[in-house]
Design a protein that fits this description.
single chain; alpha/beta; Arc Repressor Mutant, subunit A; D-Maltodextrin-Binding Protein, domain 2; two-stranded antiparallel ribbon; 21% strand
Length: 324
Amino acid sequence: MAISPNLNSLAYFEAVARTGRVSLAAEELGVSAAAVSQQIKQLEEQWGVRLFRRKDRRLSLTIDGEMLFQTTTTAFRMIREARSAVLRQRNSRHLTMRSSPSFAVRWLTPRLKPFLDANPDWGVRVDATPDFSDFETEVIDLDLRYGSGAWENLHTECIIHDLVLPMCSPEYREQLRALSDDPVIQIANARRIQSVKALYQWDIWLIVHGIDPSTEHAPLRFDRSNMAIQLARDGAGVVLDSVTLAHEDLERGTLVPLSTAFDVVEFPAYWLVCPPRHVSRRTVSVFAEWIRTEARTFDASIRQTLSDLGCSFRPARDQEPGLR
């Protein structure tokens, strides 16, 4: 039966062959010279060959020893390099995440600098894309996803409850108020701007508020909330969209609620998503705690802003499609 090589003996042999001295190898390995000599002797006895010629306290490799050295020195160098790479990776702080584009631009990026200042040795990559990550084939630590939260076999944590209401520029609101004091009539005569990927759509909102959804004037549809909100701010119509994304405009007054007669609709919408095994990663856990804190601060601030504007809130009802 073949005898498996003793890796410890091979490591001692490689060190002696590379340094040319038992004493130097022993110093490198942190053992006694006698221990090194004993391992070399056992290796030669096990293999039945001489690996070194010994003359006047000097060592030189035999043909068999040279053959073994060429193999072992390459193998141990590769192991040392792999160990160094593993240690560098373990000690590095690199976070790769994916985020929906409008959330990345309007909410996440403006808040990142304090996080980066607190973690100056971190590398952070954000891919702003509507495509969800395939964690089995892509090198992604986490997703910040917009949606219902119904993703199987993944860790999901709601970080922000969205608040949705009709918004427009102050000038456009005045134009609608000039037509009527009734907000229902104002909505019926408004040009409605639609974010087609939003969970809460105009047709549902109109039905819930008892307004005929067929009354639509030259509809405007965009697949990015960022574009829809911008257009509403420019006075092109009324947008039904996320206060999470429009908070700066509401705080500045460049966007205003169309009417406080309509409650702000509330539902869970923005999620931290990753495989359960990623939760224990230090980068993920540190970032998750940071974004929870940011989200709590934001939620308190934006609710206060809306309250100051005279708005009231209601949870989305279970029968409203797309929401839970």
